[in-house]
């Protein structure tokens, strides 16, 4: 007996692994998602342009009783292969089905079982793969004494670990690596040695303050940030958002922290 606990009997028939001509593979719109959308078309064009057999996992295909082959999972790969015109067959895991109902049920089961990669997992994979942006972000974090947490579970975070990958990426893409470095350093110094529970909420405000005052008064930004603990900043950001219901948390953080730095600078004048 394996360590998986009590197991139910196996269901269905074992599939076969075959290369099948792309012309033989069909898609049933009765249950498949439409690919006539901007994101899907962009994905298809990107796969077609940068086709890599190392990334082409086998398509999951149902073989109906009449012999028809219908793609359960992999229609973007199929469409990209057709778009290229120089790919004539694709690897397929072919599962015999008794009717369309079983086919659609397999589609649902496959999508329910699929675990979406977190931004942390994608970032760490990009870093291992030598992605330039990931290395730039990681370098900015390391220079500030920060690192990326292993998971999004706050109970597992160690001091000075961050999880706001999307915010870091937006900063470097919009404002450049210098601003990212300054923002990371300001936050790291202000909250040194702490578990950065609310760093993702606060970070857009730090970036906005760096953009406005970073060149002239970097120490003042750090001083203002450190004047409140993270929970106090979170509460202030929520108050700003409540007072301005048409803005999001990102904009509220910018408003709250820039206003605090503005006031501190005026007080020094």
Unreliable stretches (pLDDT < 50, length at least 5) are: none
Largest sheet: 5 strands, mixed
Mean pLDDT: 90
Number of helices: 11
> Structural class of the secondary elements?
alpha/beta
N-to-C span: 75 Å
Order of helices and strands: EEHEEHEHHHEEHHHHHH
Beta-strand residue percentage: 5-15%
Strand tally, please?
A: 7
Shape: elongated
For the biggest β-sheet, the strand order reads: 1-5-3-4-2
Which percent bin holds the helix content? Answer: 40-55%
Please give the radius of gyration in angstroms.
Answer: 25 Å
Can you tell me about this structure?
The protein has 269 residues and is an alpha/beta fold. The chain has eleven helices and seven strands. A five-stranded mixed sheet has the order 1-5-3-4-2. Strand 3 (59-63) and strand 4 form a beta hairpin. The longest helix has 20 residues, at 249-268.
Q: Key terms for this structure?
A:
single chain; five-stranded mixed sheet; elongated; alpha/beta; 269 residues; 7 strands
